[in-house]
Structure formats: C-alpha cells, structure tokens
C-alpha cells in the first residue's frame, strides 16, 4: 500500500518524544500513500504520563497505549472519505508544560471501487424494513461501540475462509435496480457448512441470529477493532469466549439478507467499516 504525507510543525515537540525532537522520529504515520478503505496507523513516541490527543479532520479519535509505552491511533477510511488532503493533528501535554502541537496533511487516493448488481426475490428484499433495521442496530450498535483498551491480536490477520472472494469491499451495491449502499466487507463464495475461522485473536462480543445478518458472530480484537461474520448456518462460540487466530467459530450458511451460501467478513475500526484485506498483510505498528 502506498500515503503522501506533507508535514508542518506547528511547535517544537518535547524532547521526550525523540532524541532530536524531530517530528518524523516522534510521530510515524502509515501507510505512505493510503487509498480509501485503508487503515491509517499513527504511532506517537510519547510515553506516560504525557497526555496525547489526536484529531482527524477535527474529529477526536481514540488513543491507545502499547506495551512499550508508545501510543497508537487507528483511523479507518472508507469509500465515503473524500480523496485528497485530510488534516491529522496531534497534541502532546507533559505535566504543567504548555501543550505541543503537530499538524500533518494526509492525502488519500481513490479506491476505484466497482458496482455489483443483484436481483433479489420480493421476500428477500422485504427483509430491508425499518423494523428489521432497528432490531439489527439495537443488537449490533452497542457491540460496535466497544473500545477495549488492550489489543488481543498480533501479526497479520488471516482470511476466515479458504473460499474465493466473489464480492470485494467497497463496491456499490445495487439491489433490484436501486442503489442501497457500498459493500462494507468481503464476501467469500463458500459452500453451505464450510468452516469459518477467527481471523485473529479476540473475545466473542456477539453470537446471535439477526434479521439481516442472519446468524452473526462479532469478535472484539481490542482497541476499537472488531470483526463481523454474517449469514452463518451455525456458530460454535458464545459471548465472552476467548478465541485464538484460526479457531473454528462457525460455518458458512445462507441466513439473513443473502442470495445463497456466502460468508461476509466486515472489519470495523473505531467507527468505520474498513477494507479487511488490508489487515492480511504485514504493516509496521499494526500487524508486524
């Protein structure tokens, strides 16, 4: 993956951030040239008790601690995030010292997403109702709001199925001639009953049948990162279970809003559905 970064120092960073107090040593942002759907990784070398605040286009984003004392921020991008420049700002406060500010422009490139057109029978399309959407959100909303302070995952994620992907992330979804939404994950064209495994370590946050997702499992990987697996024929885990990378969590099915056996894997990062395939590769500060 390639992010063009234009850095502008607004103030001198405190010496605790790096030996020379230079921004590149104190604050690292990756990937170097992100596209829509990528996850931005911000590492700030400001160990406690320094306070660190980060904003992206003016919106506050969660800051988490790493075992080595550094801070990490994960910012999800989506097809709805405009291409071009975005402002990343970091504020570091040490004790009674004046806050130190750093601002940088992050340029996001187009993900060049396609379009998928699906024809659904009336009974299936009827599932997209206000009542079902409300039911779905009442169950899934509080789960996606979790911000567990520790990271359970380590290393690159693995695909939840060995089946081929037949519907990629980000494509515009057109149902029966009407645009509904962009695809918020990746679909695997497996057979009914094929195994579905945990993409990385985590805690089961939800295992429930929902009107649109059908049999649904959500894993909390920590630090605002959650995986959703939907349309399962069955699940083998329960809320609160700790699972390891590669552990069986369910089987592919055709439950909910789906045209046939399929597995949808969505990855939610601090409020945004990102491209889960980005997490299959090693990225310093994230999966390596």
UniProtKB/TrEMBL annotation:
Q: Which UniProt keywords apply?
A: Signal
Its signal peptide is 1-19
Taxonomic superkingdom: Bacteria
Query: Sorted alphabetically, which CDD domains does this protein's record hold?
Result: M23_peptidase
Every copy of the M23ase beta-sheet core domain together lies at 183-276
Q: Which Pfam families match?
A: Peptidase_M23
Q: State the Gene Ontology terms under molecular function.
A: metalloendopeptidase activity
- Put simply, this protein is called M23 family metallopeptidase
């Amino acid at each position: 993956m390639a992010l063009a970064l234009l850095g502008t120092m607004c103030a001198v960073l405190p010496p605790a951030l790096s030996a020379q107090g230079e921004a590149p040593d104190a604050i690292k942002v990756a990937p170097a040239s992100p596209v829509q759907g990528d996850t931005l990784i911000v590492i700030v070398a400001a160990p406690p008790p320094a306070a660190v605040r980060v904003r992206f286009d003016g919106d506050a984003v969660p800051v988490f601690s790493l075992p080595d004392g550094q801070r990490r921020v994960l910012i999800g991008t989506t097809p709805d995030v405009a291409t071009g420049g975005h402002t990343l700002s970091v504020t570091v406060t040490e004790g009674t010292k004046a806050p130190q500010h750093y601002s940088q422009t992050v340029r996001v490139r187009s993900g060049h997403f396609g379009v998928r057109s699906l024809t659904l029978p009336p009974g299936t399309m009827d599932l997209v109702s206000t009542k079902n959407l409300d039911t779905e959100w009442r169950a899934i909303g509080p789960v996606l709001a979790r911000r567990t302070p520790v990271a359970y995952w380590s290393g690159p994620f693995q695909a939840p199925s060995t089946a081929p992907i037949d519907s990629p992330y980000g494509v515009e979804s057109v149902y029966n001639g009407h645009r509904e939404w962009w695809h918020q994950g990746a679909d695997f064209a497996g057979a009914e009953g094929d195994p579905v495994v945990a993409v990385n370590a985590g805690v089961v946050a939800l295992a429930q049948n929902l009107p649109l997702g059908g049999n649904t499992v959500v894993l909390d990987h920590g630090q605002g990162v959650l995986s959703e697996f939907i349309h399962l024929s069955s699940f083998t885990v329960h809320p609160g279970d700790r699972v390891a990378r590669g552990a069986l969590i369910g089987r592919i099915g055709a439950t909910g809003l789906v045209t046939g056996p399929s597995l949808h894997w969505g990855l939610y990062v601090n409020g945004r559905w990102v491209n889960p395939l980005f997490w299959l590769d090693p990225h310093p500060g994230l999966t390596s």
